[in-house]
Amino acid sequence: MAQESGEVWEKFAVALADMARDLLAQDSVQATLDRIVEHATVLINGCDEGGILTVRRGEVRALAATSDVVRMADRIQQDLREGPCFDAVTDREQLYAIEDLRRPHEKWSRFAPELRKLGMGSMMGFLLFTDDDELGALNVYSRRPNMFDESAQRAGWVLASHAAVALSSARTHQQLGDALETRHEIGEAMGILMERHGLGEEEAFAVLKKASQDHNIKLREIARKVCETGERPR
């Protein structure tokens, strides 16, 4: 039995390493999110569906889902303002689990029956990140009750930990890329204003900044419009 258990975890470790490489190879945050939920259905025993959502100031937003059923479950949490992710916002628990959705659930008395109507038998939720007042969570579902034993919970926790690192890396990479692209567009717009409208460097930047403030539009959007039209913003 011990040898069999060791072989199972050895296979899991190999699969986890493959997942880590796969996540880091994705070229966008969305692609990383999509791959995380796909890996969850493979690596967590009993997992039929998976999804990632955020809760920010009481608003739920689905970031990735393996099916429309998962998106419906996310909307139920939003509509009822009840469920594991809402609780996780306040107490920062790393794991939530509902072992058997057929039984009354005291903590989520309205949410659990609605999941049961969607054909779910059990679920688990794992924190991925907390950022100020925003929370990201990985939710996994099984159509059968009592599917997520201690081994599945441990596998989910390990997967979620690796996924959180990959997601953080993807977000940082995208933010850096956006910052570089923004700087390039602003520089190009300033060059157009300097060449076509006879402005100095500081004056060109001041024109862009004032237009952004006056119209409550991001500086990058003002710069992009100048690059497209060649006109000085009003």
Automatic annotation (TrEMBL):
Keywords (A to Z) from UniProt: Kinase, Transcription, Transcription regulation, Transferase
Name of the molecule in the record: Antitermination regulator
ANTAR domain residues: 166-227
Keyword Chloroplast: no
GO MF, any single term: RNA binding
UniProt-listed SUPFAM superfamilies: CheY-like, GAF domain-like
Xref: PROSITE patterns: ANTAR
